[in-house]
Structure formats: C-alpha cells, structure tokens
Design a protein that fits this description.
heterodimer; A: two-stranded antiparallel sheet; about 70% helix; B: Four Helix Bundle (Hemerythrin (Met), subunit A); five-stranded antiparallel sheet; 5 strands
Chain lengths: ~120, ~325
C-alpha cells in the first residue's frame, strides 16, 4: 500500500546496475550473432525454425523476464498479482501465435503447391 | 454523510473491504491491467506480422539489407548497428527510470528529479532516432522496379553489389510532366512521379551488359535469387511496369508491400507509446519539482509512470527481435 512504501525499502541500486549489465550483454550477443549469422546456426533447423532464430527468441524472453521481474518489480508483488499478469498474457499470446502462424504457413503452401497464383 | 451510510459492522474485515489479497494499491493495479491489455494489442500486431511473414516466407526482405544505415557513415554497410544503439538508449532510459523509482522510495527529491530528467532525455533521443530510421526507410537507397504481380525487382552489378536507379537510367527527352491540380479541369493531382521512368530504366539496363536482376525469391541458402543476363532482360521487358523509390503504404523497394505497412504500423505504434510516455514523464517530472509527492510523502506516481515506461522498453525488445533479428 501507499503508506508503507516509504519504510522498508532499502536501495536496490546494485541490483539495477547488475540487470543493466545483463541486458546489455544479451543485446550485444544478439547483435553480434545477427551480423555474423554463423553457418551452423542458420543451417540447422529445429521444429521448422533455424537454431539462430530460436536463440534470438529465447534471449528475448530472457531479457523480457529481467525487465518485468526487476525493473517492473514483479518479483516483489504477490504471487496472485504476478500470475494474473504473466499467465494471462502467456496463454493468450501462445494461442494467438499458434493459430496465426499455422494459418500463414498453410496459405504459403497453397500459393506454392496449388494452382493459385498471386505472381502473374 | 453518516446518515446515508449503512453500517454493516464488517468494516475492515474480509467482506467489508478489509481484505487486500494482491497487496497492491488501486493505481498500480490499474496500471498493470492496462499494461496487460496493451501487451495483448502489441502481441496481436506482432502475430499478424508473423502471419504475413509466414505467408510470404520465401520472398520477405532480409532485414540486414534494409536497415543498414548509420549516422555519418554514408555508403557504409552497417547492418543493425543503429537499432542496437536505439535499443541501448531505451534500456538505459529504463535504468534511469528505475533509479528514479528507487530514489522515490527513499524520498530523495533531488535524485528523483535528476533521474527523471535523464529518462526524459533518453526518450527524446530514442524518438529522434526513430524519426531518422523512418526517413531512411521512406527515402530508400537504391530504388527498384515493380511488376504486374506486385513484386519488386532489384538491380545488382557483376560482383553482386546493389546498383541504384540513378546509375542505371538513361535520361530521355520526352519525360512525362507531373499532373498538378492547377493544370487540370478538375482540381485533381497525382502522386509525385519517381525520378526516372520505367522506360529510362529499361533502356539503361539494356545498354549496360554488366547489370543483373535480383528477385525477391529466397534460395535454399537464404539469399535472394539472381537471374542470368538473358533471364534478367526478358523479365524486365515482360513484367516490369513501374519504378519504386523508397517506401510508402502502397509500395516499397524492399519487398512485399505488407513489409512496409507493418514496419510503419508497428514501429509507429510503439513510437507513439514512447511519445506519450515522454509526455507523462514530463508531467510527473514537474510534479516532482513542485514537491507534490514530497508533500504526500509518497512517490508512487513515479512508480506508476515507471511501470509504463518499462513496458514500452519491453515492447521494443520484442519489436527489435522480430523486425531486425529473426
């Protein structure tokens, strides 16, 4: 509550800078990988996506975790609030992604293999 | 007041509103609800982007080739350096924001003011960077021609380097004049004409045996298909219908029109969030200076605007991944 914020908060400056360093390093790794595009990562495919893209997405979620937990202070909220926020988004977004990407891939296949032309 | 309120004898107890299972203030909780719904909006946009990308899986532009500008490095191929810089700027302004919140917990007005100020500056720099990014995207670099089917054909020389329209086209005498509102019976005008007509580009292409055409179609190796000289000539002759320079909502020189549309829409929507975040930050900043929160002995407003600001950063992390990396 509002009235007790002033009391039992000691400074978290050290943690903030640690998180900043983590986020910066992860971003740097992403950029370097994106520029170099190592052959063995772009060439290998896992669950119909290249390993490099998997790495990018996992690193992104890793960054999102630190931003939400540390900067947005989700780690200090009650379990109930945290779950209401995180799981709502996670479930709805996974469903949306699943449906739309499956459908997009289906249309791609139709354009590619069937007698439907969009390139005339 | 007292007369109209029915006393139930449960005040302060669980069913009288005394129970706070989430132990969070009203304002903060509402900010979280807003953030969740806004996150779903952004997810909808990004998932729609994914849909279109999967639909055009083998003809989507390669981000490294589109976003390769850096200030003061003209003509140098600098893939992603600039967006990486923008990401750092936004992450850093997130850090100063959280430092302001931290200082607010300890009621240190001076520190809150200083960190809020840095946060606002960071936001403004980010917005400026985004404007520059848009400028490059809209103006384009090389130009291309588009076909009947709405595809884009780009030009390269023998070594595989991109060639700009200006280096290809042979200017002709009989150039069509742009139709302006003042010269017609009805006050209609047309879109500004591209610098070169398709005929000029075709003539220039035929005259220079070194030039080849690159289509949008991706090969197995993840590179764009390059046609042979004969194929290039035939393709240009039979299919090319117009010249495109840079990008607008109808066409762009990079690839499918949807690529440009989603770029404008998603980065624009995010930029609008940053813009409103800066505005709210400025309001709170002045409240801090005026001592509003000092008198309340509570800097929760800084915390709430901080939540919004971190959310904007969070969204950028995803936009960065899906537009520039994947």
């Amino acid at each position: 509550m509002a009235h007790d914020t002033a009391h039992h908060h000691e400074s978290n400056t050290k943690r903030i800078w640690t998180v900043f360093v983590i986020l910066s390093i992860v971003t740097l790794v992403e950029v370097v990988l994106g520029i170099l595009k190592p052959e063995f990562l772009t060439g290998t495919s896992f669950l119909s996506m290249s390993l490099l893209n998997w790495i990018f997405i996992i690193l992104t979620i890793y960054k999102a975790y630190y931003i939400a937990w540390s900067f947005m202070h989700l780690e200090g909220e009650t379990k109930g609030l945290r779950r209401a926020i995180v799981w709502t988004a996670v479930f709805l977004v996974s469903y949306l992604i699943f449906i739309l990407l499956t459908e997009g891939d289906y249309i791609y296949e139709v354009f590619k293999n069937n007698h439907v032309a969009w390139d005339f | 007041m007292e007369a109209t309120v029915v006393r139930t004898g449960t005040e302060g107890k669980t069913w009288g509103g005394g129970n706070e299972p989430l132990k969070s203030s009203y304002g903060k909780m509402m900010m979280w609800f807003f953030i969740v719904s806004d996150a779903l909006t952004f997810s909808g946009f990004l998932a729609a982007y994914g849909f279109s990308r999967f639909k055009f899986l083998d003809s989507w532009p390669i981000a490294d080739e589109v976003f390769n500008h850096f200030p003061f490095l003209h003509g140098v191929d600098a893939p992603m350096y600039y967006v990486a810089l923008m990401t750092f700027i936004l992450i850093f302004s997130s850090v100063t924001m959280v430092l302001a919140v931290d200082a607010g917990h300890q009621l240190k007005k001076g520190k809150v003011t200083f960190y809020m100020f840095l946060t606002i500056i960071g936001g403004v720099i980010f917005l400026g960077s985004q404007a520059w990014e848009w400028k490059n995207f809209i103006n384009g670099t090389y130009g291309a021609v588009y076909t009947n089917g709405g595809n884009v054909l780009q030009f390269i020389d023998g070594e595989g380097h991109r060639v700009a329209l200006a280096d290809i086209a042979v200017p002709e005498a009989s150039v069509r004049v742009e139709h302006e509102a003042r010269s017609g019976v009805w006050f209609e005008s047309e879109r500004s004409l591209p610098s070169y007509s398709i005929e000029e580009v075709k003539a220039g292409f035929a005259a220079n045996p070194d030039l080849l055409i690159r289509t949008q179609i991706m090969t197995e190796e993840g590179e764009k298909t390059i046609l042979s000289r004969e194929e290039s000539l035939a393709k240009l002759d039979s299919e090319a219908v117009g010249v495109v320079e840079g990008a607008n909502l109808t066409r762009n020189e990079y690839g499918p029109p949807l690529f440009g549309d989603f770029f404008f829409f998603i980065t624009g929507f995010h930029g609008f969030h940053v813009f409103s975040g800066v505005l709210i930050n400025i309001i709170i900043f002045f409240n801090v200076i005026l001592g509003t929160y000092e008198r309340r002995k509570n800097y929760e407003m800084v915390e709430k605007v901080g939540l919004y600001w971190h959310f904007v950063d969070l969204v950028w992390v995803f936009v960065f991944t899906f537009f520039y990396l994947v």
